[in-house]
Specification:
The complex is a heterodimer of chains A (about 120) and B (about 90). In chain A, about 75% of the residues lie in helices and about 0% in strands. Chain A is built from 3 helices and no strands. In chain A, helix 2 packs antiparallel against helix 3. Chain A is elongated and about 55 Å long. With about 90 residues, chain B is mainly alpha-helical. The chains are: A mainly alpha (about 120), B mainly alpha (about 90).
Chain lengths: ~120, ~90
């Protein structure tokens, strides 16, 4: 149980996380519609960031830097999907409609009722 | 391994920039900008570890919050006009 195994595990996590980010960026370019692009970018991007930061925790050990990394993971896990949801809802309200699998625009997609408040 | 991850994230940033420049609506430009913000946080964190000074994480933590606020500010601007406007009257 030395530092070498921690560095290998951390390095593997960082590489896998960066691959997720590249896949998310490729999805952002190749997807045909605003909403599918948003989904590809947000989901794989948040996962990739979480994995990279988790791998960096293995590099850092039991120091204050690991605590900061944990807070950074929490911050991105909360704010990332919230921002994407806000953009998706704003796109629906603004009149952008999703495109179906056969290329036809789905006209009857409505944003949910605005009266809903917690 | 950290250098390989850094290069991969920089490639991902370049791809997101293509969508930010090309996207027909403002919403996919905004999503691309949000994702580029996350990529920038990763570049900061990995560079901090590569150069031996993990103090860059503080900047990343601040920018993670500012990124979300920025997305909301742009959305509010595009819906309600200048940001001094209080918005529609609330239906209580």
């Amino acid at each position: 149980m030395s530092a070498a195994i921690f560095q290998w595990v951390g390095g593997a996590l960082v590489v896998i996380g960066s691959l997720f980010m590249v896949v998310g960026a490729i999805g952002l370019i190749r997807m045909p519609d605003v909403f599918t692009r948003m989904h590809a970018a947000s989901v794989s991007d948040s996962l990739g960031v979480g994995l990279i930061l988790l791998g960096l925790i293995f590099f850092a050990g039991f120091t204050l830097v690991a605590v900061k990394l944990i807070f950074l993971i929490l911050a991105i896990a909360v704010t990332g999907p919230t921002a994407t949801h806000a953009v998706a809802r704003a796109a629906l309200v603004a009149g952008v409609r999703p495109v179906g699998a056969d290329g036809a625009v789905i006209e009857d997609a409505e944003p949910e009722d605005e009266e809903v408040r917690p | 391994m950290l250098s390989a991850a850094m290069i991969a994230v920089l490639v991902a940033l370049a791809l997101m920039l293509v969508r930010a420049l090309r996207g027909p609506t403002v919403f996919d430009r905004l999503v691309a900008a949000n994702s580029m913000g996350n990529g920038a946080i990763i570049v900061l964190a990995v560079y901090g570890f590569l150069s031996g000074r993990p103090a860059f994480l503080d900047i990343g933590l601040t920018y993670a919050l500012l990124n979300m606020i920025g997305v909301f500010a742009v959305l509010k601007f595009f819906r309600y006009g200048p940001l001094g406007h209080p918005g529609e009257e609330e239906t209580t």
